[in-house]
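Q: Sequence in, structure out?
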Amino acid sequence: MNSFRFHYSIWVGTILLLVLTINSYPEEHKVYNLEDSLEIAKQNNLSIQSAEQVLKSAKSQIGIARASLLPRLIANGNYTYFKDVQKSVISAEGSFGFPSPGGEMDAMSMPSVDNEAELIELEFGAHHNVQGTVSLTQPIFAWGRHYYGYQAAKLQYQASEKELDAAYEKLRLDVYEAFYRVLIAQEFVKVANQSVDLVKKQLQIAEESFVAGVTTNFDVLRAKVQLANAESQLIRAKNGVITAKNAFKTLLNIPLIEQVEVSGSFKIPEVEFKLDALIKIAQDNRSELSRSRLNEQAGEKQLSVSKTRHLPDLSFFSNYQISHNERLTEMNRIWSLGLQVNIPIFDGFVSRAGVKQSESILKQLQLGTQQVVSAVEFEVRNAYLSLLEAKTIIDVQRETISQAEESVRIATIQFENGLITTVELTDTQLALMQAKVNRLQAQHDYVISLARLEKAIGQKVQ
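A: Exactly. Output:
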């Protein structure tokens, strides 16, 4: 018994040790670069999956519209069992129950029930009946109604393709914004850490100067307040990273519990462009414009369909029918063919109302195209101006960082020698931190403005 308890304790201890060992390993953080993020977003993003399903539905509509141009073949069959069949009694001399020539129907004599030899009982029909029919129908002429519908379905499918392209372009911009939002949040943490380190160094100098009797307690208190403010900024910066990562993971449809990191830099590509040329490129390449124009063409086809609904149409039909029962010695076979003309005479003004509705829808689509043209031009101009603004700020900030760093270095030496106060040193440090933040923000704005401009024109900026 004691041996069992001893071995049992060993096994339990081993399992607990393994569990603690596994849990002691740090959770692996998956690192995403920009290309990986774009690819994963295309595969996992729910908006893209929804747009793909819309495209599949539009493709199915082409098959439905094509079916109206093709022959329609229908086969049906039935079996019927009659427990009792219809019977009739006739006179052997009455020509199967009909009056004799020259006689009147109402004066026709009935056979005597006493003379059974004069009566004949007949059954009409059969107990077991089998019937089958095959019907073929082919539209011949309908004023182009079916063909216009087929063309409209194809145009709507092409419009759905452009809608998917537009969804990809928007997703690309969303990924850019989410990715660089995480990146700049991480850079802000680095700047906040540097600020904390500088203020800690300032506090140390102030305390040493106070002990040496060079400065008053005011400089120490001021440095402590500045340190508390810097640490608060660091906390906010770290929380900003968490928020940005959650938005990034939501966009890529990654579980929020998963730990991720992003790897990249704010590269500033040198590009040359002219506004008029960019607007022209957008009008030619933008997916939303192509989709709107295709929908407009589909609306024209639907209007043509509506205008033919009050006109007659011609179709060909053919039927082949078979039937059999136990009384027949040979199966009945009947084949027929012909032409059918449908002539609408009065439909309660439905066709007229349908034409007006199609005209209104087409007008809405045309107005929508004009709105998209204006919106695209506005988007291009706005992205272009934002890009120029960010580029100008970057050029201005190019020398600011080095100058601010040199100012902090000189101010620190002066503070150590008692030549300036804590307030003056703090001002130079704040100026340095602000310069770094401004440069990071300008680099972020430039990259995002370039991505917005590429989305606005529908292609990469050369």
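DSSP finds ten helices and eight strands in the chain.
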